[in-house]
Design a protein that fits this description.
By secondary structure, this protein is an alpha+beta fold. It is elongated, with a radius of gyration of 17 Å.
C-alpha cells in the first residue's frame, strides 16, 4: 500500500503569473520537498496532489505534445472527481460571461476551449497525484 489515511499530502497550487514550464514546476516541487520537512517535521507528506481543470485529458486534443501543459499533466496519475465543468471560466478566461459565445479568444487554447464548450462539451476538473521520487 502506497498511502494510508494518516499520511500527509501536499496540494499543489498553480500560480497564474509563473510560466508552467517543466523546469519551473520541477524546481518548485523539489524545493517544497526540501523545505516541508524542516518546517513541518511531523506532517509526514507522502504525495503531491493537484485538483484542477488543467488535468483534464481532453486538453490534449487542443495542445501540441510538447506543450508545457501536457508535460504538467503527464507528471500526475489522474483520477476523476466531481466537477461542474466551470473552473475553466475564471482561470482560462479570467472573467465571467453570461453566454459561451461571449468568451474571449485571445489565445489558441481559449479559442479551442470556447469551441469545445459551444459544441456542448465541458472541461472538467480532475484530481492527480505523484510521489516525490517521481520529481
Amino acid at each position: 500500500m502506497a498511502l494510508q489515511r494518516e499520511n500527509g499530502i501536499l496540494n499543489v497550487h498553480i500560480p497564474s503569473h509563473v510560466p508552467l514550464t517543466p523546469e519551473n514546476t520541477d524546481v518548485a516541487y523539489a524545493r517544497a520537498w526540501e523545505v516541508l520537512p524542516k518546517c513541518y517535521p511531523t506532517f509526514g507528506v507522502k504525495v503531491f496532489t493537484c485538483f484542477s481543470w488543467l488535468l483534464d485529458p481532453q486538453l490534449k486534443q487542443f495542445l501540441k505534445p510538447t506543450s508545457n501543459l501536457v508535460a504538467f499533466q503527464d507528471k500526475y496519475h489522474r483520477f476523476a472527481m466531481k466537477s461542474g465543468g466551470t473552473d475553466v471560466y475564471s482561470f482560462l478566461f479570467k472573467k465571467p460571461v453570461e453566454k459561451n459565445e461571449d468568451l474571449c479568444e485571445d489565445t489558441s487554447l481559449q479559442r479551442a476551449v470556447k469551441a469545445h464548450y459551444l459544441s456542448g462539451k465541458y472541461i472538467y476538473a480532475q484530481g492527480g497525484y505523484f510521489f516525490p521520487e517521481e520529481i
